[in-house]
Design a protein that fits this description.
This protein is of the alpha+beta class and 195 residues long. It has one domain. The protein has 5 helices and 7 strands, in the order H-H-E-E-H-E-E-H-E-E-E-H.
Length: 195
């Protein structure tokens, strides 16, 4: 099954305008990109978007869940071994407490259901992130768009949707064994040296 993130594309002019609107000087950012379309920039989080940064493989699992079973995703970038999921403003503040509550199983017991969710870095008000250039890089770049912004008002998932995706991704990453757990008190004999 094909999804919107299988083939990375460049950012559209509307997508670039949306990204630039996050900065203090959007016209300067757009002018930079007009002159150097392969230049990544640092943009502040918190007003136009928040960022949830996941380890690359886990981020890919989250995207699989979002596109395969959920509503899809907003823009997504890959940067230095991390997946950057663009999220609705306020997500960075709310998602950690939702993950903490879920980890305790909602019942106050440690090691609950999301023990396999790796630490997600949430960037919101007061934070800034490097976003990939709007144009596809011809050389090996440390950043690229997985799902490029293509509109001035992209849909951005909120904390509840990203929590759902993280939990589904964690469950899909768990290896299931059909063998019973080993008996810790069992005596084990090496039978490979039989005569």
């Amino acid at each position: 099954m094909s999804s919107a993130y299988d083939e990375p594309l460049g950012v559209t002019s509307d997508g670039a305008a949306w990204l630039a609107s996050a900065g203090t000087y959007p016209r300067s950012t757009l002018a930079l990109w007009a002159e150097r379309p392969q230049a990544p920039v640092v943009l502040p989080c918190g007003s136009v978007f928040d960022i949830v940064s996941a380890p690359a493989l886990f981020g890919r699992l989250m995207l699989d869940r979002l596109w395969g079973e959920g509503p899809g995703s907003g823009p997504v970038a890959a940067f230095r071994g991390r997946t950057l999921l663009f999220a609705a403003p306020g997500t960075a503040q709310r998602l950690p407490s939702l993950l903490e509550w879920e980890e305790w199983g909602g019942e106050g017991r440690p090691g609950g259901r999301s023990a396999t969710v790796p630490p997600l870095l949430c960037h919101g008000v007061g934070d800034a992130v490097t976003v990939p250039a709007p144009a596809l890089s011809k050389t090996g770049s440390v950043s690229r768009w997985t799902v490029a912004p293509d509109t001035r008002h992209p849909w951005l998932p909120g904390p509840e949707i990203l929590l759902w995706a993280a939990l589904r991704a964690a469950r899909s990453a768990v290896r299931i064994s059909i063998s019973p757990p080993p008996d810790q008190d069992a005596k084990v004999y090496d039978v490979s040296r039989r005569r």
